[in-house]
Design goal:
This protein is mainly α and 96 residues long. Helices cover 54% and strands 0% of the residues. α2 crosses α3. Keywords: DNA-binding.
Length: 96
């Protein structure tokens, strides 16, 4: 995954967290109390400046009463769906 794609993923997940939090009328301090994650750390996650661990995202999802998958992009194709531009196979030459 390229650095640009990583940044976009972090920003997208952060936007979803912020949107769900706002829908539930929670501020950062309230979500911090519910998750045990500091408000500044949550802010960095919401702005895409911090790469949250899976366990951190699970805590956030539980506190917001949504599934972990709700924080991820659910419009991406599943493993059985191929896009026309998807490369076929893997090139592991750089890793050997």
């Amino acid at each position: 995954m390229s650095i640009e794609n990583e940044r976009k993923l972090l920003a997208d997940v952060g936007r979803r967290i912020r949107a769900i939090r706002a829908e539930q009328s929670l501020n950062l301090d309230q979500l911090a109390r519910l998750t045990g994650i500091s408000a500044p750390a949550l802010s960095l996650i919401e702005t895409g400046k911090r790469d949250a661990r899976l366990t951190t995202l699970a805590k956030i999802a539980a506190a917001l009463r949504v599934s972990l998958s709700a924080l991820m992009d659910d419009t991406s194709p599943g493993p059985d769906t191929k896009t026309k531009d998807a490369p076929q196979g893997y090139d592991l030459g750089d890793y050997l």
